[in-house]
Amino acid sequence: MKRTNSSLRKRILFLILGSVAVFFSACPKTSGEDFQSQLNVFGVIRSDAVQQIVRIDRNYAMDDTTNYDLQNAFATIRGDTFCDTLNYVNWRNFVSDLFLPVEPQHTYNIMVAADGLDTLRGETTVPGAFTIIFPQSGDTVFNDDTILIRKSKGGKVYEFRLDQNDTIPPQVVSFPDFLPDTVFCFLVSDLDSNMGEGNWLLQIAAYDSNFFNYQYQFRDNEYPQCGVSGGLGAFCSAYVNSVTFYYQP
Known about the structure:
Layout: H1 6-9, H2 16-25, E1 39-46, E2 53-58, E3 74-78, E4 83-90, E5 93-96, E6 107-113, E7 120-125, E8 131-134, E9 140-142, E10 146-150, E11 157-163, E12 171-176, E13 183-187, E14 198-207, H3 209-217, E15 225-226, E16 228-229, E17 232-248
Parallel strand pairs: 1-17, 9-17, 15-17
Antiparallel strand pairs: 1-2, 2-5, 3-4, 3-6, 4-5, 6-7, 7-16, 8-10, 10-13, 11-12, 11-14, 14-17
């Protein structure tokens, strides 16, 4: 199996909430008499999350001195079997009260309303479930081993997160999937060339096309609309799988 270009694979994917700050900074304040503020949303619902978190703001004119004024925005998230209100927590974060079971290949919708602004609507279809072929739980893995996964239907971006313990920051790498193959493979050394011996948790997230469009198609676009209408932003989803293995250098 050929080793793919490691420079592509080792692009550090922003962590879900950390990346949101970059998202909002990418929507600059705008001047001009024709400026109209719009709702600006970023959310990734995940199959492994107990609560779903969506960040909600609006865009601002250059001369607008307001810091944040949407604490009273109304937001709902809806799936096949539930509808829940997202409640404001702090500084743009709106969180679900209920445990929302995000299922693979199901479609979910969001609706956000705020006084004086158009209502924003978003839709995402969760990528399909996928299996990790190697390693299996408890396997011993070496540096030149190849990790194999059977790819997700609808998965457009794959994120790989390595955790060993709470004292070591996790290693996160991601890349888009452009290949038609049904099985995806990569070397253990492509994840982290400085892994220490011991037990490691590998968490793999497959993100939908909305996430792909935001991350790769709209990177330099000031006004992205990725899965949303009536406003700006991205409403995305991810199916997550994980495995624990023992790494032997």
